[in-house]
């Protein structure tokens, strides 16, 4: 496998990244009220859909790695936690494990960024520097904002899965968290303009 990243059409990458989440939502909508007896144990539709989601996500992640030649640390951590918490939910027949997964993911990412900031570094720059060149001050500011954003998402996920129904949580997980990520980056336009490296070169 070559170390050089290969170009993949944007539509295909988006499909591999978000396809499993959308399929999880659609499958849950069809199976949420059903109970399946497997090996003498009854499983709610949510647990069965979770059991199907785990290998599907791993398959899509593997295809993405095969096509691009690389995976981000975020993708690797997400895949590992999906396997761990998805398996715990199925093994103990308890949906709470899988619902806690987004909380753990966002806390880990937020904590990692916080550690970098405490050391005067932006770990985010190492992940996105080539695609979004910024001055050092810009990276530190963006990293701080994303750190707090991740912690906010963790709190939001905890509140939703603990206070609302599974159906509400599935919709929140599928559309709410994804929309929040897009909206967050859309609101960072001023920062990107102010600290963009291209703007610095143009004014020289």
Could you tell me the strand content as a percent range? under 5%
Mean pLDDT: 86
Percent helix, as a range, is over 70%
Largest sheet, in brief, is:
2 strands, antiparallel
Give the CA-based shape: globular
Tally of strands:
2
State the secondary-structure class: mainly alpha
Number of domains: 2
Strand order of the largest sheet: 1-2
Task: Write the H/E string, N to C.
Answer: HEEHHHHHHHH
Rg measurement, Å = 19 Å
Helix count equals 9
Ranges where pLDDT stays below 50 over 5 or more residues in a row are: 199-204
> In angstroms, what separates the terminal alpha carbons?
41 Å
Transmembrane segments: 12-31, 43-67, 74-92, 104-124, 145-164, 170-187
Keywords: Cell inner membrane, Cell membrane, Membrane, Transmembrane, Transmembrane helix
Membrane topology: Multi-pass membrane protein
Family: Belongs to the YciB family.
